[in-house]
Amino acid sequence: MNRRVVITGLGVCAPNGVGLDTFTDSLRNGNSGIRFQPRLKELNFGCQIAGEPLVKDNLVDKYFTPLQLRGLNASGIVYGVIAGTDAWKDAGLKPLDKDQPDWQSGIIFGTGILGVDKFRESIHLVDDNKVRRLGSTAVLQTMASGISAYLAGIIGSGNQVTTNSSACTTGTEAIIMAYDRIASGKAERMLAGSCSDSGPYVWGGFDAMRILPRQYNDTPSEGSRPLSASAAGFVPGSGAGALVLESLESAKARGARIYAEVLGGSVNSGGQRSGGSMTAPNSEAVQRCIVQAVEQAGIQKNEVDVINGHLTATVKDPIEIKNWSLALEREGLDFPYVNAFKSLFGHCLAAAGSIECVGALLQFHNQCVFGNSNCEDLHPEISNRVDPTKIPVKTMAYSPKIIAKASFGFGDVNACVIFRAFND
Question: CATH homologous superfamily of domain 5-253?
Answer without folding.
Answer: Thiolase/Chalcone synthase (3.40.47.10)
